[in-house]
Specification:
It is a multi-pass membrane protein. The chain crosses the membrane at residues 20-43, 136-159, 171-190, 196-223, 251-272, 346-366, 410-426, 446-464, 470-492. By secondary structure, the chain is an all-alpha fold. The protein has a domain at 192-287. The protein is 68% helix and 0% strand. The protein has 21 helices and no strands. The protein has helices at 2-13, 25-44, 59-72, 96-112, 128-157, 165-177, 180-190, 193-208, 212-225, 233-245, 250-269, 276-286, 301-305, 311-314, 317-341, 345-362, 372-380, 386-406, 410-424, 441-463, 473-512. The longest helix is centred in the last third of the chain and has 40 residues, at 473-512. The chain is globular. The two termini are 44 Å apart.
Length: 513
């Protein structure tokens, strides 16, 4: 008996022989965080967007230029075209919180390397020291905001779960912090999506822990950092409104949440509230309709269907804006109605996925990198929907493959994809995933064929040249394949969200009986 007990305790303490599951919770979380940070550092040693590509370079130069402008001009002039601030050269096109973040990072760069943010003379600055400091601004932002929010979410999400709780928590945290798409875009390509996405995760965790006022503030901050956070707005609104309707004093609760949102916006926008014209100037920078309904080969509805319907040629921009708005609203409406009727924590996570997918597929001026937004709630649902999460992650990577190839990030792409697969199929976890079910029959055959096609596309894209008559043929095929998977996931996820409501009623009927 003693031998059996000792063997069992040894097995439990070792977490089924996996380093990720061993030890106490703080130790496990610490190991995952350190490893995730190390992976980011290694990826940041690679190339980035627009490296050495004069005269406008790329996203790296855009971020650096915003630091230059915010450091050397007053806040009121950050969004105004002038001889000092030429908006045609990477003008600020994100909300004020991004501008404040750029200013804070500019102070850091100016202290250690003034030449990297000097007015005019720093354009295209790519010194080794400057690049090192720029990379550290992303790393620090990631650790301070995204890492902290991810840990907060995992603690809250698993607070009332019993069986396999520690295994699931460590596995889930590893998947969130080692998501290949966000690492490649922020620490390879070069952006600060970790801030807005981190604030969104914090807001989600606050809702799950019943701190709606905190959630309103955090999500308002996310909206004021990147306007694409609006992809999640219908889910937040419908869920909170549904809860308000069930509050003992609905009007008072709506007023409280509304004041939290309005107060946060006023605080962030304060330097621009002295005139209506100034506010309009900022807003005009946040909605660049003149760029058209899509750019490049993004795997959304408008770009994919443009193979057959030449939207830009057939319709003027105002009409396309109306089409886009109508399609987006129709896409998010079912999810919103469900949450207003029957708000629930799990339903809210599905609503986040459905809302962000609808925006990605149908909204105006979507970029390849915008797939990071629907990928976030899919990651938060990894335990409930492991197959959906795995499938969306893979095709999100595929949809960005041409962009990452241009940035010369193929090696990090392959390594992070392999690392993702290894973590997903970690020993001792796979068999306990709540929503895991192996596809069978025709479904399995179709999935195998789609995967084989995607592997073939990877090889073709890096080894062959497209026909001269169709220079973007490979990008178009990748776009078509990826979009088909995103649409399939959107349909499934919407159906699953509505099925939650029926399952809740069935549970209630059982209790009554």
């Amino acid at each position: 008996m003693e031998t059996k007990k000792s063997k069992k305790s040894t097995k439990d303490s070792n977490g089924d022989g996996c380093w990720l599951l061993s030890g106490s919770m703080p130790l496990a979380f610490g190991c995952i965080a350190v490893f995730a940070l190390l992976v980011r550092v290694i990826v940041s040693l690679n190339s980035y967007s627009g490296a050495g590509d004069a005269p406008k370079y790329g996203d790296y130069e855009a971020q650096r230029h915003w630091m230059e402008i915010t450091l050397n001009t007053p806040a009121k002039k950050w969004y105004q075209n002038s001889t000092v601030n030429d908006l045609t050269y990477w003008g600020l096109d994100y909300p004020p919180l991004t501008a404040y973040q750029s200013y804070a990072h500019a102070l850091f760069l100016h202290y250690f390397h003034p030449d990297s943010v000097a007015l005019f003379t720093s354009r295209g600055h790519e010194s080794p020291k400057g690049k090192l400091l720029m990379r550290w601004t992303v790393l620090s932002s990631d650790v301070l905001i995204f890492f902290a929010a991810a840990i907060y979410f995992v603690i809250v999400y698993y607070a009332n779960r019993g069986k396999n709780k520690q295994q699931h928590m460590t596995w889930h945290l590893a998947l969130i912090l080692l998501g290949p798409c966000l690492i490649l875009i922020d620490h390879g390509h070069f952006q600060y999506n970790c801030i807005s996405l981190g604030l969104t995760i914090g807001a989600v965790a606050a809702i799950l822990s019943k701190n709606e006022l905190v959630a309103c503030v955090l999500f308002s901050l996310a909206l004021n950092h990147k306007q694409m956070s609006a992809y999640f707005a219908p889910a937040f609104f419908s869920h909170l409104f549904g809860k308000c309707l069930r509050h003992r004093n609905p009007l008072l609760r709506v007023l409280q949440l509304g004041l939290a949102v309005v107060g946060t916006f006023i605080l962030i926008w304060w330097p621009y509230l002295y005139s209506v014209d100034t506010v309009k100037e900022v807003l005009s920078r946040l909605a660049p309709f003149e760029r058209g309904i899509y750019e490049d080969y993004v795997a959304n509805f408008w770009c994919t269907t443009s193979v057959l319907i030449k939207w830009k040629r057939l319709f003027p921009t105002p009409s396309l804006r109306l089409f886009s708005l109508s399609a987006t609203l129709l896409g998010v409406l079912p999810s919103m109605v469900q949450q207003i009727k029957a708000p629930s924590d799990l339903g809210f996570l599905y609503a986040l996925l459905n809302s962000s997918l609808s925006f990605y597929l149908f909204s105006f001026q979507v970029h390849e990198k915008s797939i990071l937004l629907p990928l976030l709630p899919a990651t938060l649902l990894a335990l409930e929907e492991p197959l959906l999460f795995r499938w969306l992650t893979y095709f999100a990577l595929l949809s960005m493959f041409p962009l990452l190839c241009r940035d010369r990030l193929i090696l990090p792409y392959v390594v992070l994809l392999i690392l993702f697969v290894l973590i997903y199929y970690i020993p001792g976890i796979r068999s306990t995933k709540k929503g895991e079910s192996s596809p069978t029959g025709l479904k399995k055959l179709v999935m195998i064929l789609v995967l084989l096609c995607s592997f073939f596309l990877h090889i073709v894209y890096v080894t062959l040249r497209p026909p001269q008559k169709y220079p973007f043929l490979f990008e178009a095929v990748i776009m078509l394949l990826s979009c088909s998977q995103f649409v399939t996931i959107a349909v499934y996820s919407n159906l699953k969200q509505w099925m939650l409501e029926s399952s809740i009623w069935m549970e209630k009927e059982k209790k009554v009986q």
